[in-house]
Design brief:
The complex is a heterodimer. Chain A is of the alpha+beta class. Chain A has a single domain, classed as SH3 type barrels, CATH 2.30.30. Chain A is 26% helix and 30% strand. In chain A, strands 3-2-1-4-5 form a 5-stranded antiparallel beta sheet. In chain A, a hairpin with a 2-residue loop joins strand 1 and strand 2. Chain A is globular and about 40 Å long. The two termini of chain A are 23 Å apart. Chain B is of the alpha/beta class. Among the domains of chain B are: 112 residues, HypD, alpha/beta domain 1 (Rossmann fold, 3-Layer(aba) Sandwich); 153 residues, Rossmann fold (3-Layer(aba) Sandwich), CATH 3.40.50.11740. Chain B contains 16 helices and 11 strands. Chain B has a 5-stranded parallel beta sheet. A 4-stranded parallel beta sheet of chain B has the order 4-3-5-6. In chain B, helix 3 packs parallel to helix 16. Classes of the chains: A alpha+beta, B alpha/beta. Chains A and B meet through strand 5, helix 1 and helix 2 of A and helix 3, helix 6, helix 7, helix 9 and helix 12 of B.
Chain lengths: 108, 395
């Protein structure tokens, strides 16, 4: 749970942002993040709230770890990887924004 | 990667930059040789750090002298049985308990929430407090309680949900049963426990995003050991280990921030303001560890109407009548979870680990949560016996 998950902001409406997390769209809240958040920004989501806006120069570095985790989890058989499971839990913490079918998050 | 020794842990050594990992590992070996003490103990207090350390096999890159141990970094694991009992009792009184999935199988004195659910108790898993609030909106006739676990990083989200106003404000039938924990006092207490010797700490990067790194200056001052804020990427963790061991070698007790891309000195002030408007630290027992002064986050008096402990008569008496007798929990008494969370024992010291106690049949809370040391080691192997692994060599 401490890991959080980064995603790209698609829309901002008041204190709610629609965010793309590795292909899954979720709505998360902006009450906690201490910098202004705009469309195109990347934010770190924890338990349904953006806790940080990720500075531009650090986005790729931040996304890398999650890409490794989700890719390996999608390819590997056997028990679900704990870290990937936590990342999926963090994604699921967002409001599904009308999506009905739960898809497996895989890195784009 | 050298595949001569095929081991799942070696297969997991995936680094963005293997040459950099090799450099950091070599540096750690060099530093270890420069330290006279027979061993160096570095404690971290974060389940996600342990996951990354175990998953990427980082212990195989450390010199034998350097021991990285996980302290009380799993908030679900330190949730005390009486806190679970309160949630179990409420769910059996007809109140909805909404909570994170990891909390379901944490043992209470008599039952877990999963047991209560199987016996007809009202329990609903959520991934965030906003989903718990939605559940309350969808069930206006019922009382809905969010059984809140997590350290300060997660408590901030609970605070924000309660502080929401207008259409976002939680409905009147929503309240919170707080099992939130505050980590800094636990770091101090664990260091003072008999048998414990901590030469330095890694602090969890994302928690520090909220609290800021200056919070750890008190730990440094009182314990005289360094604290290094670390990220979660394998190279971030190795770089932070190099820094903390350098500081240990130099006898330099100070805070260093090795995760500046996420953490500032003061942290997220907006989040802290919300946290302390809603919560106040209180002393309380952490499972298997001790009474931790100021270790529990409880709702302030102004929030009594949202505090399940003050809103309901929680009927714990009903639970004791079902106590199964003195032999009910013989396995639980052998569980070493407490010693493991204080860094005194490792999962491998526990007679139950991997035998009677497994992820599918957990005895202690450390095997329940994805942030528990035992569950993490069970999946990834905690201390891989790889002897020096050749990083990035062609096969």
């Amino acid at each position: 749970m401490c890991l959080g998950v980064p995603g790209k902001v698609l829309t901002v409406e008041g204190a709610v942002a629609a965010v793309d997390f590795f292909g899954l769209q979720r709505r998360i809240r902006l009450d906690i993040v201490d910098q202004p958040v705009a469309v195109g920004d990347y934010v770190l989501n924890h338990a349904g709230y953006a806790i940080r806006r990720i500075p531009e120069g650090e986005i790729e570095e931040t996304l890398d770890l999650y890409r490794i985790l989700l890719k390996a989890a999608a390819e590997e058989e056997g028990p679900e990887d704990l870290m990937a499971e936590d990342v999926r839990g963090e994604i699921a913490a967002g409001d599904s924004a009308g999506e009905t079918a739960e898809r497996k998050a895989v890195p784009s | 990667m050298n595949a001569a020794r095929h081991d799942p842990a070696t297969d997991r050594l995936q680094f963005r930059d293997p040459a950099r990992a090799r450099e950091l590992s070599a540096r750690l070996h060099q530093l270890a040789a420069e330290i006279d003490a027979p061993s160096v103990q570095v404690m971290h207090v974060c389940g996600s750090h342990e996951q990354a350390i175990a998953r990427f096999g980082l212990r195989s890159l450390l010199p034998p002298k350097i021991d990285v141990i996980m302290g009380p970094g799993c908030p679900v694991c330190v949730t005390a049985a009486p806190e679970v009992d309160e949630a179990v009792a409420l769910s059996r009184q007809g109140v909805w308990i909404t909570t994170y999935g990891d909390m379901l199988r944490v043992p209470g004195t008599v039952q877990s929430l999963a047991d209560a659910q199987a016996a007809g108790g009202r329990v609903r898993v959520v991934y965030s407090i906003t989903q718990a609030v939605e559940w309350a909106r969808a069930h206006p006739e019922d009382e809905v309680v969010f059984f809140a676990s997590g350290f300060e990083t997660t408590a901030v989200t609970t605070a924000a949900a309660l502080l929401a106003t207008g259409d976002d404000a939680p409905p009147a039938n929503f309240s919170v049963l707080s099992a939130h924990k505050y980590i800094p006092p636990a770091m101090e207490l664990v260091a003072q426990m008999p048998g414990s010797r901590i030469d330095g700490y890694l602090a969890a990067g994302h928690a520090a995003t909220i609290t800021g790194w200056e919070l750890f200056e008190a730990v440094v001052e009182r314990q005289g050991v360094p604290v290094v804020v670390a990220g979660f990427e394998p190279l971030d963790i190795l770089a932070a280990l190099v820094k903390v061991v350098e500081l240990i070698r130099d006898g330099a007790a100070r805070v260093e921030n090795m995760y500046p891309r996420c953490v500032s000195r003061q942290g997220n002030l907006r989040a802290q303001e919300q946290l302390w408007r809603v919560f106040t630290p209180r002393s309380g027992t952490w499972r298997g560890i001790a009474e931790i002064p100021d270790g529990n986050l409880r709702l302030r008096d102004e929030w009594a109407h949202r505090d399940a402990r003050r809103r309901f008569q929680i009927d714990l008496g009903g639970l004791w009548s079902e106590t199964l007798g003195p032999d009910a929990m013989p396995l639980a008494e052998q569980c070493l979870c407490g010693d493991i969370m204080t860094g005194i024992a490792s999962p491998l010291d526990c007679p139950l680990y991997g035998k009677e106690c497994r992820p599918d049949a957990p005895v202690g809370a450390c095997m329940v949560s994805s942030e528990g040391t035992c569950k993490i080691w069970h999946q990834y192997g905690g201390r891989p016996d790889l002897s020096p692994v050749a990083l990035g060599d062609s096969p």
